[in-house]
């Protein structure tokens, strides 16, 4: 029996992104009892900054945005003695009232192997969807791979954006694209910037795919780009320029992402952002240390629990002082303007009165 192109694509995607292939079950078995010493009071602010960010991997446009620094700890064993030793992750978030923008900055020597994501750096963002979704165990549903469904794991949904660099050219835009979105699933055939949802580490799927069947209304709502400070680019890289820089050069990785605050998701597979409210978020980083390939669970995270992300309305937080300063400057300028106008009016009136007085005292010569 021949399959239609759309059905064939979804079948291929289901195989490629099967949870057992993304990260095999055994790779997520923890070696001992779970422990977490996170600071429950950590918060990140997404302030209102319209029109300042271009998602191109180059981060000069973020220089005036405040960020938060996090030590990167092993996700399955968050011990400070085992932290990523090249530096911390800086996380910055802004919004423009319609889109949310994220920037992740991590120190690390340049590593890139074309076509092999496990020998390149990789990052992910995870957001809570369901009210019962925990950070630990990626949603925390107790069901197994063959029993997890949108009913048995209801309330444990998490939203994941995962970006692997093996086929992503630095400075180019990946993720949301019309070709994959027409197929109605969250994959990205060009750069592996994928929109995923999960209930636990063994039950992860591209948006639109799942154990209950496929739904072609799903979309990949994320876009993103990456860069490394060792790269030198004057006209834009193409695939033939790979590996784009020399292996092992010291520097910093930069990742930029954007996504609508609200998506058209009706499947409980996307987190939704609301200005004035908070979301629970985490960020992860994979890196081929000592040139060795990384595997699914061998990643670092900014915390062993959720971090609160606040979407700040316009005029709040740090912008309030800017607004107050602008208002003061406007009021001062307006006052000065009216003072000058009043002075000019008084001079004109005085001149007119003086002229009228001289005219009133004028006596025609014939009356002398």
UniProtKB/TrEMBL annotation:
Enumerate the spans annotated as Cytochrome c-552/DMSO reductase-like haem-binding domain.
Answer: 59-301
Query: Which Pfam families does the record associate with it?
Result: EB_dh
Q: Where are the transmembrane segments?
A: 328-349
Report the InterPro entries cross-referenced here.
Answer: Cyt-c552/DMSO_Rdtase_haem-bd (IPR019020)
Q: From the UniProt record, which GO molecular function terms apply?
A: heme binding; metal ion binding
**Would I find ATP-binding among this entry's keywords?**
no
Indicate the secretion signal residues.
1-22
The protein's UniProt keywords, in alphabetical order, are: Electron transport, Heme, Iron, Membrane, Metal-binding, Signal, Transmembrane, Transmembrane helix, Transport
This chain belongs to the protein called: Heme binding protein
Species whose genome carries this gene: Perilla frutescens var. hirtella
């Amino acid at each position: 029996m021949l399959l239609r192109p759309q059905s064939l694509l979804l079948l291929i995607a289901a195989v490629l992104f099967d949870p057992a292939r993304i990260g095999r079950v055994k790779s997520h078995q923890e070696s001992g009892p779970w422990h977490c010493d996170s600071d429950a009071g950590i918060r990140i602010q997404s302030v209102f900054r319209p029109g300042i960010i271009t998602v191109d991997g180059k981060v000069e446009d973020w220089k005036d945005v405040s960020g938060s620094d996090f030590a990167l700890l092993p996700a399955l064993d968050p011990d400070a003695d085992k932290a990523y030793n090249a530096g911390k992750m800086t996380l910055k978030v802004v919004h423009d009232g319609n889109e949310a923008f994220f920037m992740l900055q991590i120190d690390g020597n340049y590593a890139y192997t074309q076509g092999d994501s496990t020998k390149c750096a990789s990052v992910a963002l995870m957001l809570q969807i369901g009210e019962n979704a925990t950070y630990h165990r990626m949603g925390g549903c107790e069901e197994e791979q063959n029993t997890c469904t949108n009913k048995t794991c209801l309330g444990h949904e998490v939203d994941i954006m995962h970006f692997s660099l093996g086929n992503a050219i630095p400075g180019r835009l990946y993720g949301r694209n019309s070709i994959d979105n027409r197929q109605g699933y969250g994959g990205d055939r060009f750069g592996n910037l994928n929109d995923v949802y999960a209930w636990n580490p063994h039950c992860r799927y591209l948006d639109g795919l799942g154990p209950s069947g496929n739904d072609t209304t799903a979309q990949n709502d994320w876009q993103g780009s990456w860069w490394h400070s060792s790269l030198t680019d004057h006209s834009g890289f193409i695939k033939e320029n790979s590996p784009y820089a020399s292996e092992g050069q010291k520097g910093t990785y930069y990742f930029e992402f954007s996504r609508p605050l609200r998506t058209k998701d009706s499947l409980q597979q996307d987190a939704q952002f609301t200005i004035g409210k908070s979301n629970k978020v985490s960020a992860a980083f994979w890196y081929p240390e000592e040139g060795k390939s990384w595997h699914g669970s061998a990643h670092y995270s900014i915390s062993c629990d959720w971090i609160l992300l606040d979407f700040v309305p316009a005029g709040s937080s740090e912008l309030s002082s800017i607004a107050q300063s602008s208002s003061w400057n406007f009021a001062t300028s307006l006052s000065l303007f009216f003072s000058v106008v009043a002075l000019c009016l008084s001079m004109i009136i005085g001149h007119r009165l003086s002229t009228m007085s001289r005219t009133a005292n004028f006596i025609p010569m014939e009356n002398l």
